[in-house]
Fold this sequence. Notes:
Layout: E1 2-16, E2 19-30, H1 39-42, E3 44-53, H2 54-59, H3 68-86, E4 92-97, E5 120-124, H4 131-152
Parallel strand pairs: 3-4
Antiparallel strand pairs: 1-2, 1-5, 2-3
Amino acid sequence: MxxxxxxxxxxxxxxxxxxxxxxxxxxxxxxxxxxxxxxDLKYKDISIEIKITKDLISQxxxxxxxxxxxxxxxxxxxxxxxxxxxxxxxxxxxLDLNIFDQDKKCPYNPDKIENxxxxxxxxxxxxxxxxxxxxxxxxxxxxxxxxDYINSI
Length: 153
């Protein structure tokens, strides 16, 4: 299955204590519907609010007006893509970044992040194979046979 994801806009939110906050808006659609009469109805809108501590901004040496939004966009994009692949995506997502659960060095180079205002991407999600369940079914059969054997003793 393929999905097409597009960045729509972002909004810098009011500061909240020791955090900077940005909200990114995306939309995505299963590519099977692109060009079809129902295309407009099949788009799903997503927003992700990302909070980052000032300590982490400082630790990563990010320039608030230049690098910060690029880095947060990259985190948000990857988070959204992972959620779409896992089929756990919600209309509103949230991601908190702080020094306790992040590397000491920023994982992304802001100079290599292209202009995210033009971002769109096709995501391929492999179909779930029924063969994956066969191992579980075989295990269940073995457990049932063992249980029946124990009960017969």
